[in-house]
UniProtKB/TrEMBL annotation:
Residues annotated for ATP binding in this entry: 10-18
Included stretch of the parent chain: 445 to 664 of 669
The protein, known as: Multifunctional fusion protein
Organism of this sequence: Xenophilus arseniciresistens
Oligomeric and partner information: Monomer.
Locations listed in the record: Cytoplasm
Gene encoding the protein: cmk
Protein family: Belongs to the cytidylate kinase family. Type 1 subfamily. Belongs to the EPSP synthase family.
Principal localisation: cytoplasm
One MF annotation (Gene Ontology) recorded for this entry: 3-phosphoshikimate 1-carboxyvinyltransferase activity
């Protein structure tokens, strides 16, 4: 019997993480934050003083394959170090986007991601969950929101953490990251053909959760 998977893909700051984590909680499923893996790969490459470029593709892929990664109670560990905060900065997101454009790095992280698919089920969020990693998933959601809404949400998040930020800069950054993620040759950001589109610009987090749970009951 195939282990059920719900894929939640979409652009930067669309609310994928919030939606996917809440679905996993309500359904009692495992949760995969695939972006965190690329963020860790970017961090590890930086620390190894590797340029985040095609010339270092093989070296970064080797690093990615051997990451001593652990996910525990919502925290991400690299060896003995809790790197949860270090990988959440805007700069770490940009670094993740750079290393994620390298095909060998994507391939190095593929089996690790597929290993999260265990009973009773999985909710996976990212850019290519429905197109590449779990193409047979019974439910694929492509979550979007306008760039203005996404920048505003990211701004609120940062302010609530006591980090000052400028909305126009945030918007420019997330549009640059989306442009790179959408234009790369491997696993570009785009909805799977059988994905259901959900624009949450004018929805509360709870409304999005309810919509997806409704779809989930329909496909089962
Ligand atoms: O989702 P998050 O912002 O944490 O992802 C960081 C970056 O990692 C994205 O901008 C994207 O370039 C990359 N990524 C990816 N494929 C995924 C998840 C993230 O290429 N499945």
């Amino acid at each position: 019997v195939a282990v059920p998977v719900i894929c939640v893909d979409g652009p930067t700051a669309s609310g994928k993480g919030t939606l996917a984590a809440e679905l996993a909680r309500q359904l009692g499923y495992h949760y995969l934050d695939s972006g965190a893996l690329y963020r860790v790969a970017g961090l590890a490459a930086r620390r190894a003083h590797l340029a985040l470029e095609p010339s270092q593709e093989a070296a970064i892929a080797d690093l990615a394959r051997a990451l001593p990664l652990r996910f525990d109670a919502g925290r991400v560990w690299l060896g003995d170090e809790d790197i949860s905060d270090a990988i959440r900065t805007e700069a770490a997101g940009m670094d993740a986007s750079r290393v994620s454009a390298l095909p060998a790095v994507r391939e190095a992280l593929q089996a690790l991601q597929q290993g999260f698919r265990r009973l009773p089920g999985l909710v996976a969020d990212g850019r290519d969950m429905g197109t590449v990693i779990f193409p047979d998933a019974p439910l694929k959601v492509y979550l979007t929101a306008s760039a203005a809404h996404r920048a505003e949400r990211r701004h609120k998040q940062l302010i609530s953490k006591g980090i000052s930020a400028n909305i126009a800069d945030l918007r420019a950054d997330l549009e640059a990251r989306d442009a790179r993620d959408s234009s790369r040759s491997v696993a570009p950001l785009k909805p799977a053909e059988d994905a259901r589109l959900l624009d949450n610009s004018d929805q509360t987090a709870q409304q999005s959760v309810d919509q997806v749970l409704h779809w989930w009951r329909q496909v089962q």
